[in-house]
Amino acid sequence: TAVTVAQFNLLDAATSSAIVLSGGISDTAANLAPGGTASSGLTNSTTQDGDVAITITGTAPTVAELNKIASLTTGAVTASISGNKADLATLTTASTDAVTMTVTDAVTVAEFNTLDGKTSVGVILTGGVSDAAAAYAATNGTATAGRTAIAAQDGDAALTVTDAATVAQANSVATATTGTVVYSGGITDSAANLMN
């Protein structure tokens, strides 16, 4: 069973031996690392159990709070956080951490890939994706790894293609989402492909 920081502190005061927290820690960011400074309970618990799993409950942590908590354990950190891409890009969480991340502004496919590397769960793209056609798919329509991951993680994200796309690229983008697709640069292709 997971313990709170306060419960760990009580257990810690009752023994001189290291405590192994098999059920992990589950508590608020305010109790774990308020303002990005680790509480004594978090420091002591992670010193004694360096791979303890930590779940952040209640109000979403700030980037500073989440980074501090994740830095003190090699175990998985579970949390939800929302912000713009610039703030979320400063997360130092690992690909093994279950950070449900909501991005509030538009990202490029490369920016999505960077954020995706900071979590083991899906990235929610509230602000959508805006990028050149080649970032989504090759001219023959073969999807890039980023476009495939976007489709799998947020199937209704709004997608914008900022330059001219081939018919195959346009089709690849369209199948990646049930949300809005905008082709800002239009579609440029051979007459044969345009008529298919």
Number of helices: 10
What's the rounded overall pLDDT mean? 98
Structural class, by secondary structure, is: alpha/beta
The residue fraction in helices comes out at 25-40%
Strand order of the largest sheet: 1-2-3-4-5
Distance between the termini: 60 Å
Order of helices and strands: HEHHEHEHEHEEHHEHEH
**Strand-residue proportion:** 15-25%
Question: pLDDT below 50 for ≥5 consecutive residues: which ranges?
Answer: none
Any idea what the radius of gyration is? 22 Å
Shape: elongated
Describe the structure.
By secondary structure, the chain is an alpha/beta fold. It contains ten helices and eight strands. The protein has helices spanning 5-13, 29-32, 40-48, 63-71, 85-88, 109-116, 133-136, 145-153, 167-174, 191-195, and strands at 25-28, 54-57, 77-83, 98-103, 123-125, 129-131, 159-161, 181-183. Strands 1-2-3-4-5 form a five-stranded parallel β-sheet. A three-stranded parallel β-sheet has the order 6-7-8.
Short description:
By secondary structure, the chain is α/β, with parallel strands linked by helices.
Quick tags:
alpha/beta; five-stranded parallel β-sheet; 35% helix; elongated
Furnish the topology, listing elements before pairings:
Blueprint: H1 5-13, E1 25-28, H2 29-32, H3 40-48, E2 54-57, H4 63-71, E3 77-83, H5 85-88, E4 98-103, H6 109-116, E5 123-125, E6 129-131, H7 133-136, H8 145-153, E7 159-161, H9 167-174, E8 181-183, H10 191-195
Parallel strand pairs: 1-2, 2-3, 3-4, 4-5, 6-7, 7-8
Helix pairs in contact: 6-8
